[in-house]
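Standup, Tuesday
Yesterday: got the pipeline producing structure tokens again.
Today: sanity-check two examples.
Blockers: none.

Example 1:
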Amino acid sequence: MNLNGTRIVLTGAASGIGLALLRRLAERRVQVLAVDLNASALQAACSAAGSLAAPPNGQSAAQITPYLADMGQPEAIDQLFEAALSQFGGIDLFIANAGFAYFEELSQPDWAHLERIYRVNTLAPLYILEKMQALPHDRPHKVVITASAMAHLAVPGYAAYASTKAAVHRFADAYRWQMQDPRQLLLVYPIATRTGFFRAAGGEGTPLPWPSQSAPAVAAAILHGIQHDHRVVYPSRTFQLVMLLNHFLPLMHPLIQAIEQYRLWRWKRR
């Protein structure tokens, strides 16, 4: 997919992987509707990205517009589509990146607690995918969903989070069979990113799962996958090696999980 001239919606644009993507997109000739729930962080992100949008080689700079929305609400997603279609006349690329995690033991039953994370991490991207497929398109289009390496390797303390990403993974696995072109859906499986994501999941002192990488590295891998029409992107070669080794030595995953269980135990005893 050629990114030049594309009309893009990017959710979770104010921090982490979304912010890294916004900064890279700002260097291209694109239109971006940057979506987030945090108004001040979103404005700061768009202002910073706008300063990077200097016209290269005489081309037009990127056009970045902030948009406040809660991806846990279907009505907000409907309104987001209406706003994007009204402003752009169409959507070529929807990057469903918004999401969050809990770092916890789930010791008490709490329906609302589980519903909230499933609304944002699972239901929203699947609903977005369906809405994108229902739109009339007159040029190439794609949906990118940020899944997680935890869809393959669940880490203790992240049971709810890992399950939301595994659900997206399995949905995509089946849904692609009914798509006219399966390359219109790209799933990304980042490992832990060195951002505020995990601190937000459990508070100060939350251990960062191993392995980890930077948000700019993930953003670069995502854009490479979009441009080369990949169906999946694994930004970390280390994680790819872990999955390969586990195929031949099935103790790899339990070993990593045991280490992370110990780190969870230490975090609880702070």
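Example 2:
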Amino acid sequence: MTTHILPVTPDSLAWAKELIAEGEVVAFHTETVYGLGADAANDDAVRKVFALKGRPADNPLIAHVHPDYDISRLVETPAWTACLREKFLPGPLTMVYPSKGRVSAFVSCGLPTLSIRVPSSPVAQAFLRAVDCPIAAPSANRSKHVSPVTAQHVYDDFAGEIPLILDGGACSGGIESTVLDCTGNVPLILRAGLVTREMVAQEVGACEYYTLHDGEKPRSPGMAYRHYAPSCRTAFFAADDVQGAVRCYLAEAGRGGAPVLLCEHAAAAALPECRSLDLGSTPEEMASNLYAHLRTGERTASLLIGIEPKGRGGVMAGVRNRLLRAFGQNAGSDHET
């Protein structure tokens, strides 16, 4: 199979619609990361997504729809969620509702809920309007690998295995959507992202983080397993152990290796003697740069050395979650403020 990277045009959208109707998989740009999409009502197509990614069978997918799609066809929507949809959608927020069972049971891995996302990316919206059906889509990367924020990243993982990548350029958000459980009276963040706990609480009065318990089935993508991992060797140091990171860097260089630091701007600026991938100064910059830098690091470093950012709370909760998981660290405390 030849994999085509195409911009959004009437012809590419018509082909994408045909491919989805035939049970094929199409990768597409969103404002967060690229998605690997299939008809959410087609069992075989959804299973193909799991197989392509090598995704665990108990890790649910998200159903993507365009802004005018009537989600009441798919889920029950508690009245208190209306203000969140009005405020944050289209955008990087996935909302989990009680499901009406109108899509493949494989999408939610047998759970009685369904995750719904309305992306703001013009490419995603054009694709979703063209197919006019819910599209089940995880990030378009191999399971546990770094998420893709360019069409080339998708191609690197799936060349010859999917027919079409709809190219929208680089993704601006950089980390996956916030996933919010809306099945109770208080919203629970299952996966942190650009829509923060504070932002949600300001609209509805309260919002908490949910912690996955040992042995519990994940309710959402990103809750279990190591994710976002670069393929090169890695090391990780806490924010207060920059000197430890430098010693590790010098030891690797002394062995003839090619070490690279991955760190926020303040640390990179303080270590001009070290080759660094600068995540930026603000939480939004770090979110936008994280996956692109992880992909660059795995191509150019013999050892990628992560230094934990100092920031906590807000968007940094999502950044730290991805960074800690990418380096195989315990992400259980990444919501501290």
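Quick observation on example 2: The longest strand covers residues 93-98. Residues 279 and 286 are 5 Å apart (CA to CA).
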